């Protein structure tokens, strides 16, 4: 076949060039103190000569066989000289008979060549001659490998540092020859595919062998990167798989007839399908990575590559324009090969709430994801929670009683990494279980702790930038308000002037007519100003009153129902404690936002009822809805609005008004489906119980 002949020619040519260059380099720059340098140069030169002959003539030519015999004899003599490297000359006396035996066996190849030349026309002798020649080569390769093993095992520690590169290269040389001639002996034919690779093998072997003669070879170590090791193992697995499939296909040759063809075709289809499904899988890649790291490396992590990947993940938004919080979760998850993760951040009262999800849509996180006590414990101890240990009952700092059930019961939760910035908890990243099962070890804890602090600094920096931006927006708002105050001052001046003139000219018809015009103009300006700003003004402090939540719902529905359909579908009498004016203002904000997001004829629904603990008011619309990202990051931020020209203060002020009454404002929204705001205020009876408990604690302290 043409491609095999081309591969063979190129390989032998490359082998000749590389071996010749290696011989020149060892002779000119090799270690002068080694007494085996000259035999090494000769062996490399004869190997280059053999490669040149194999590239120039057809396989089996006498000149090629003679070049190979001279090559093998030179390498056997070099092996004999390697035993004297650490001064063990007495050992040469024991090794000499074995080497002479191998030289004798290799010399028998000359006799076989003479016999083959004298009986060139006898076809019945070609097979026995080939079989005998390959058997002799197998014997030489096995004997040389045994000598290599004894050489390295019996050498002193200092000699091993010198010999290791040479021994490794010679082991590759004779191992390849052993496989080559073993296959030739079994099949009674020269394996042309392997024969095409012999030149490439010689070129590859010559490089490490020459490196062994470097003056600093004792300090040279082969340290492949994790990426190279992982890819090599991947290729090894794929190659093994293909070899097994090929062996199965060849074994089917024992069958006969149509059954053979049908079975082979079925095997090829099944093998291809299995390869497409199994070989590219994340589980296989994870298994290969864990296996390589466990058995080939001292440390689990390549810290340089981890740091480069971490900074790249943080600094690049990617095609999906992911937010910083999602990228922070991904950066931590990539370290442990976790396929998903979530970020929880503390609220003002210390409770942890969901801030971001990364590739974990199935996880169900409640509104209050974790209690404030858990955050305080993680803040003090900087504990990385291993959920497998937690489920087995291990308790390091009392976290057993504080970890919420939704984390414990979800078997996909694997680790929780606290994010500390100046010993203050700014977040908690929960990582999902890796595809390949393993336990967290000391190296995971150390690296995740360091990276967690780095991630916390990014979160703190983002919060600081947001605070500065918000302060700048407040400053801009104050500057705008100064113009409003200027207009109000002008109106006030006009009214004051009007009153002063009225004392002197109130009885004049002309003045009365001008006064009406001025008052009407001032009133129109004030109404316009109030219409623009009335909904965003700061509430005046009010005393707490008991009032009916259902009445409040009906009043606000009647007031805003003139502009847009507002329906009260559920109205139960619920007595709560709070500020009715503040609640009215908060509901106006929420309902007006619902009206703005809805179609003209789509009604806004109000519901007022009690769940036994709180009075609940719901504002429901079927409008545009809001995205999860906007809900998490922008809904309650002043001056950020989803409406064109909106101030972005309505939802923020509504939440603050409800909180001031001891209540809570929650929201659920889906884009294209609508939004539900839920106002929870304490019932009168619940307020009394809480107040009674507070007074009892104060009395105990006194």
- Overall structural class, as computed from helix and strand content, comes to alpha+beta
Average pLDDT, to the nearest integer? 80
Give me the CATH architecture of the largest domain, please: Up-down Bundle
Extended strand count: 12
Helix/strand layout:
Elements: H1 2-29, H2 37-56, H3 62-82, H4 89-118, H5 123-154, H6 157-187, H7 192-211, H8 226-251, H9 258-278, H10 282-296, H11 303-315, H12 324-335, E1 341-346, E2 352-358, H13 372-381, E3 385-386, H14 387-391, H15 405-409, E4 413-421, E5 424-432, H16 442-505, H17 509-533, E6 545-548, H18 549-560, E7 566-571, E8 575-578, H19 580-597, E9 604-610, E10 614-621, H20 628-633, H21 650-660, E11 664-670, E12 674-682, H22 684-701
Parallel strand pairs: 7-9
Antiparallel strand pairs: 1-2, 1-5, 3-4, 4-5, 6-8, 9-10, 10-12, 11-12
Note down, in words, how this protein is organized.
This is histidine kinase. Keywords: Kinase, Membrane, Phosphoprotein, Transferase, Transmembrane, Transmembrane helix. The protein is an alpha+beta fold and 702 residues long. The chain has four domains: 2-222, Rhopdopsin 7-helix transmembrane proteins, CATH 1.20.1070; 223-291; 303-441, Beta-Lactamase, CATH 3.30.450.40; 537-689, Heat Shock Protein 90 (2-Layer Sandwich). The chain is 63% helix and 11% strand. The protein has 22 helices and twelve strands. The protein has helices at 2-29, 37-56, 62-82, 89-118, 123-154, 157-187, 192-211, 226-251, 258-278, 282-296, 303-315, 324-335, 372-381, 387-391, 405-409, 442-505, 509-533, 549-560, 580-597, 628-633, 650-660, 684-701; strands spanning 341-346, 352-358, 385-386, 413-421, 424-432, 545-548, 566-571, 575-578, 604-610, 614-621, 664-670, 674-682. A five-stranded antiparallel beta sheet has the order 2-1-5-4-3. Strands 7-9-10-12-11 form a five-stranded mixed beta sheet. 26% of the residues are buried.
């Amino acid at each position: 076949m043409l491609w095999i002949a081309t591969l063979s020619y190129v390989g032998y040519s490359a082998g000749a060039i590389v071996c010749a260059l290696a011989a020149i380099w060892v002779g000119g720059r090799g270690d002068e103190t080694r007494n085996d340098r000259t035999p090494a140069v000769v062996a490399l030169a004869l190997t280059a000569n053999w490669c040149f002959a194999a590239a120039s003539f057809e396989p089996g030519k006498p000149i090629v066989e003679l070049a190979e015999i001279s090559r093998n004899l030179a390498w056997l003599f070099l092996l004999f000289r390697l035993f004297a490297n650490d001064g063990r000359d007495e050992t040469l006396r024991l090794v000499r008979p074995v080497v002479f035996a191998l030289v004798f066996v290799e010399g028998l190849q000359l006799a076989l060549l003479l016999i083959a030349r004298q009986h060139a026309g006898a076809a019945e002798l070609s097979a026995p001659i080939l079989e005998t020649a390959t058997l002799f080569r197998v014997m030489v390769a096995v004997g040389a490998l045994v000598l290599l093993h004894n050489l390295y095992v019996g050498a002193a520690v200092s000699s091993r540092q010198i010999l290791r590169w040479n021994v490794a290269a010679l082991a590759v040389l004779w191992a390849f020859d052993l496989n080559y001639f073993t296959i030739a002996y079994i099949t009674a034919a020269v394996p042309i595919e392997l024969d095409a690779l012999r030149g490439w093998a010689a070129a590859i072997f010559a490089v490490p062998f020459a490196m062994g003669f470097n003056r600093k070879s004792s300090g040279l170590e082969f340290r492949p990167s994790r990426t190279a090791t992982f890819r090599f193992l991947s290729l090894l697995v794929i190659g093994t798989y293909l070899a097994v499939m090929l062996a199965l296909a060849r074994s089917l040759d024992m069958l006969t007839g149509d059954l053979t063809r049908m079975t082979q075709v079925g095997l090829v289809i099944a093998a291809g399908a299995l390869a497409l499904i199994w070989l590219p899988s994340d589980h296989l890649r994870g298994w290969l990575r864990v296996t390589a790291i466990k058995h080939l490396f001292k440390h689990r992590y390549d810290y340089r590559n981890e740091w480069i990947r971490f900074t790249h993940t943080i600094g690049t938004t990617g095609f999906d324009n992911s937010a910083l919080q999602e990228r922070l979760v991904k950066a931590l998850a990539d370290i442990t090969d976790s396929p998903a993760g979530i970020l929880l951040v503390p609220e003002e009262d210390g409770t942890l709430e969901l801030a971001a999800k990364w590739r974990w849509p199935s996880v169900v996180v409640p509104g209050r994801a974790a209690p404030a006590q858990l955050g305080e414990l993680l803040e003090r101890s900087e504990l990385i929670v291993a959920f497998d240990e937690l489920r087995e009952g291990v308790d390091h700092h009392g976290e057993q009683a504080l970890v919420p059930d939704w984390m414990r019961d979800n078997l996909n939760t694997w680790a929780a990494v606290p994010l500390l910035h100046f010993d203050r908890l700014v977040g908690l990243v929960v990582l999902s279980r890796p595809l390949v099962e393993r336990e967290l070890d000391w190296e995971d804890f150390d690296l995740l702790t360091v990276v967690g602090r780095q991630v916390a600094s990014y979160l703190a920096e983002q919060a600081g930038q947001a605070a500065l931006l918000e302060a700048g927006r407040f400053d801009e708002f104050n500057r705008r308000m100064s113009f409003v105050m200027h207009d109000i001052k002008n109106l006030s001046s006009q009214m004051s002037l009007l009153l002063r003139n009225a004392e002197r000219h109130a009885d004049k018809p002309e003045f009365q007519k001008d006064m009406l015009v001025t008052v009407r103009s001032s009133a129109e300006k004030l109404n316009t100003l109030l219409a623009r700003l009335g909904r965003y003004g700061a509430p005046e402090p009010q005393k707490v009153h008991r009032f009916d939540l259902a009445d409040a719902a009906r009043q606000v529905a009647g007031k805003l129902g003139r502009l847009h359909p507002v329906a009260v579908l559920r109205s139960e009498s619920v007595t709560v404690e709070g500020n009715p004016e503040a609640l009215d203002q908060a509901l106006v904000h929420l309902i007006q936002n619902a009206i703005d997001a809805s179609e003209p004829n789509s009604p806004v629904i109000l519901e007022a009822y009690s769940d036994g603990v709180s009075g609940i008011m719901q504002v429901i619309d079927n409008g545009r809805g809001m995205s999860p990202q906007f809900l998490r990051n922008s809904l309650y931020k002043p001056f950020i609005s989803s409406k064109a020209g909106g101030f972005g203060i309505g939802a923020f002020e509504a939440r603050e008004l409800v909180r001031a009454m001891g209540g809570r404002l929650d929201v659920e929204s889906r884009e294209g489906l609508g939004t539900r705001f839920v106002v929870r205020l304490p019932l009168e009876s619940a307020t009394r119980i809480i107040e009674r408990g507070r007074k009892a604690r104060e009395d105990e302290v006194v």
